[in-house]
Design a protein that fits this description.
Layout: E1 19-24, H1 27-35, E2 44-47, E3 55-58, H2 60-63, H3 73-79, E4 84-86, H4 90-105, E5 111-115, E6 118-122, H5 133-148, E7 152-157, H6 160-169, E8 175-178, H7 183-188, H8 200-208, H9 214-218, H10 222-229, H11 232-239, E9 256-267, H12 270-291, E10 293-294, E11 297-304, E12 309-315, E13 319-320, H13 323-335, E14 344-352, E15 355-356, E16 363-364
Parallel strand pairs: 2-4, 7-8, 13-16
Antiparallel strand pairs: 1-6, 1-7, 2-3, 5-6, 9-14, 10-15, 11-12, 11-14
Helix pairs in contact: 4-5, 10-11, 12-13
């Protein structure tokens, strides 16, 4: 993000765009409950129940027990013994997602999908001439409900950051408006861990520095934030003031997706590293399935006990089409480094050169 001119007063009003963030409520699980009445009102997890399975989505009944997406299935079952696992039906979810995006397109061509169940819409100038973004969101949510039987939540504001926060504020099946007058005050009372774009590691680092809330963040000098958090410091400085000039980008495609983990005990054995790698591959593939993205380049990241980092990559002619192929490529990269010269403290896996399945390019299927 290019921040506003630093010579201008930080209280200068942001441009008054009209941004809606639409987020389907427990999308995959809600589809399964819609299609199978026996699941309604019960704790449901979409994903694999096997030992290395991962929860792709959880119903609100399951969330009451702390079950959440990307959680290992064994942990989810431990927290909710009555949890019902349902196999994902991604083709069904994709078809419904296309149906929902057609509803979006009735109001604006400026649509930035984040995943199958989430998108930003710029309705500053909308196709139906509806003056209030609030009313556009109501109309979209009502039509989604009428055509799919599913609930959506919406956040409405003058920028993407606040629209995202607003959609979380009244979930499920609600909407909330953060006006330009409300923006800075809304942000200052919020814990930094609730900020979109600030993950658990950065939250912990901020908390250790005494930065607990948006107000604490706003009180930090720009130079300090830049020195402490690098280029992200500029972003944190401005969002703590309710300022976010990022445009809604139609047909946005992420360039890469990855996951990594630092181990409690350094590893040296291949079997132990493969077991850890499996959990990272699950997370990467969960993202690919939820967004419809596929990639051609697999990269392995290894950090040793002395903090030396190496990366190894392999690119294939066409996109990786399933989790098994991703796993074989990643394990192949790891195996080629064995035996490791020193203990390993971190492994990471990423997939890049991303494309959407809608691009229609052939996909890789490696021989078993």
């Amino acid at each position: 993000m290019t921040p506003p001119d630093r010579d201008k007063a930080v209280s200068a009003p942001p441009s008054h765009r009209k941004i809606i963030h639409i987020d389907m409520d427990a999308f995959y699980a809600s589809v399964e409950q819609r299609d199978d009445p026996a699941l309604r009102g019960k704790p449901v997890a979409v994903g694999g129940s096997r030992e290395r399975g991962v929860v792709a989505a959880a119903s609100y009944e399951a969330r009451k027990f702390g079950v959440r997406s990307a959680m290992p299935s064994v942990t989810a079952k431990r927290q909710c013994p009555d949890l019902i696992f349902v196999k994902p039906r991604f083709e069904v979810y994709k078809a419904i997602s296309r149906q929902i995006r057609e509803i979006f397109a009735e109001h604006t061509p400026i649509i930035e999908p984040l995943s199958l169940d989430e998108a930003y819409l710029d309705v500053t100038e909308n196709l139906q001439g509806i003056p209030l973004a609030r009313d556009i969101a109501l109309q979209i949510r009502a039509k989604i409900k009428a055509e799919t039987g599913l609930n959506a939540s919406a956040g409405i504001s003058y920028n993407k950051f606040l629209a995202k926060l607003a959609s979380d504020h009244r979930k499920p099946n609600g909407q909330y408006v953060i006006s330009p007058e409300m923006g800075p005050g809304f942000v200052e009372a919020l814990p930094v861990g609730k900020f979109h774009g600030i993950g658990p590691a950065t939250t912990a680092k901020m908390n250790a520095l005494g930065i607990q809330t948006g107000l604490d963040l706003r009180n930090q000098p720009l130079a300090f934030l830049h020195d402490t958090f690098g280029k992200s410091g500029d972003y944190y400085y401005w969002i703590s003031r309710g300022v976010d000039e990022r445009p809604v980008r139609a047909n946005r495609i992420r360039k890469s997706v990855g996951a990594e983990n630092t181990f409690f005990t350094d590893l040296t054995a291949l079997d132990a590293m493969i077991a850890e790698l499996g959990q990272l591959i699950d997370k990467v593939w969960h993202h690919c399935e939820s967004t419809g993205n596929r990639g051609r380049t697999v990269t392995l990241k290894v950090k040793f006990s002395d903090f030396e980092i190496i990366t190894r990559s392999r690119s294939v002619p066409v996109a990786v089409s399933n989790r098994g192929d991703l796993e074989r490529l990643a394990i192949g990269l790891l195996a080629s480094e064995m035996p490791v010269p020193k203990p390993v403290r971190l492994l990471g896996v990423s997939l890049s050169s991303l494309q959407t399945e809608a691009d229609g390019e052939p996909q890789l299927n490696l021989p078993i």
